[in-house]
Every structure is written in structure tokens, then in C-alpha cells.
Amino acid sequence: MILKCRLKELFFFIFFIFFIFFISVCVLVLFLMFGMCVVFFRYGFLLLINYCAFPWIAAYIVCFIACSSVATICWWVAMSYFFKD
């Protein structure tokens, strides 16, 4: 029984770390996109649209959807396993 509780705690902790990791990746991509937009904004609005806005926003949306989906699935699996008894 003690071993089962310890395994649940370890499983929960590992998936919690993965959840934090994926959310931090999403935030990092957001700040990277913002920084690149600021850099390209200095060189004109045309470069901002062509090289910054569309590719970086699309990359951020794809990364956010992928990371948040994986993080949410990991969180659901961890919570369903942790509270299953």
C-alpha cells in the first residue's frame, strides 16, 4: 500500500513537471515572437508583415496548441491515475 502511494506521488510529480515544462515552452515562444517582432519593426512595416507577423504568429499558434494539448492530456492522465481508487 505504501509503495502504491509512493508510485502515485512519483507519477503525479513527473506529469506535473511535464505540464510546467510545456506551459513554459509556450510562454518562451510567445516572448521570442514578441522580441523578433520588435526587432523587425525597426526595419519597416513591410518586413514586419512579411517576415515577422505571419510566420511567428503561425508558429506560436501551432506550438501553443501542440504544447497545451500534450500538457492537458498529461494532466488528465495524471489526475485520473492519482485519484483512481
Summary tags:
85 residues; 2 helices; 92% helix
pLDDT averaged over residues: 69
Count of strand segments: 0
Q: From N to C, what is the helix and strand string? A: HH
Instruction: Specify the helix fraction band.
Output: over 70%
Principal-axis shape: elongated
Integer-rounded radius of gyration: 19 Å
Largest sheet: none
**Poorly predicted sequence stretches spanning 5 or more consecutive residues:** none
What's the tally of helices? 2
CA(first)-CA(last) distance: 12 Å
Alpha-beta content class: mainly alpha
Our estimate of the beta-strand percent is under 5%
Total tally of structural domains = 1
Describe the structure.
The protein is built from 2 helices and no strands. It has one domain. It is elongated, with a radius of gyration of 19 Å. It has 85 residues and is an all-alpha fold.
Write the SSE topology:
Layout lengths: L1 H40 L3 H38 L3
Helix pairs in contact: 1-2
Outline of the structure:
The chain has 85 residues and is mainly alpha-helical. The chain has helices spanning 2-41, 45-82.
